[in-house]
Design a protein that fits this description.
Length: 409
Amino acid sequence: MTTRAPKGAVDVLPPESGRWRRLLRAFDSLAERYGYGLALTPVFEATELFSRGVGEETEIVSKQMYTFTDKAGRSLTLRPEATASVVRAYLQEGRSGVLKCAYSGPMFRYEQPQAGRRRQFHQVGVEYLGEPSPDADVEVVEVGYRLLQEAGIREVVVLLNSLGDPADRADYRTRLRSYLEERAEALSAESRRRLATNPLRVLDSKEDASVVAGAPATLDHLGAAAATHFAAVRCGLERRSIPYEIAPRLVRGLDYYNRTVFEYQASSYTAAQGALGGGGRYDPLAELLGGPPTPGVGLAMGVDRIVGAMPEVSGREDRGVFVVVADPERREEALDLVAALRTGGLAADSDLGDRSVKAQFRAAARRGVTVVAVVGAEWARGLVTVRDMATGEEEAVPIGEVAAWTQAR
Ligand code: AMP
């Protein structure tokens, strides 16, 4: 063995990748049903997009970026998240009004790898641009909640908070800083450092939980407009029967959030392991990137973590037909049958390696297929022997009926 995958990056191969495929498909279909078109943006961006958008003082920008200089001397960064890119694309194209889009792809952060924390990880997310209504916040929260439901993850609760409008947030920041300064001696060295640069980040410190527990709450300092917005979001979540808890110390790491912020927590995935996903409203972001004021709200779900928390599905995963070649003389016809089944919309496969019938059956069983179709002596009479792999039931059926026989299982 020579070269290995880089630290903090993983390979996902079959059969484990079956769960990834299920989850990515579920997201794709969910996003489409909720009216989010697909957004494809570059995996690398000008470094300043993140320093301006995400914020210089954030952990992501100050410590975790994969930044490099290209051959023409430009500073580029592998994207640590996708919201800034989607908003950049909206502004670059001169769009205005509502744009709803969904994305899916790898993100990169130079973190200390541990359970649930990788340097390359996959996110799926949606962005709802151009809409200030609290109902947009509710819809975005709902998309993530339904995705976790479809993934079979139980006991999901949405942790919900509001940071208020930028003026409320600035006011809160001052109050929080003076609260923390009074207790600076009790804080860890890391929190003392954050206190100077980005006091909201101290709220994420596990070591300083007791000081954090008594810190002022953002909700006590909301202006009237932000308070009304928050009440409407709560109402909307209740109407949609989405369970939520108010999390007064949830602030999230990025600078661009205002008003609603949220995360998903599941009983099978503890708080210490991190959230399965989260998001919030980011009305100030477009202006931070030099564009006109454009409200927005979005969400990002951590696919690596969700897949890790998904229960095993019972039963067969790879429904379809495996065609076994029992008579090597009929190999070409068997491949024609595979092709016809595939064209007809079924999952179909065969072994191309001239292996024994027994070995071919073993391969079929490993795949977990529904039906094995044996191309052998009966072919001359226009028949194929089909076997239901779950019940063992076997029958010789006309070649043209293999698909229907399989679909009936
Ligand atoms: P964030 O962009 O930090 O709000 O992250 C959104 C979601 O992405 C988190 O809730 C996690 O599920 C996932 N995530 C963030 N960072 C990582 C990481 N380093 N490794 C794996 N998943 C991550």
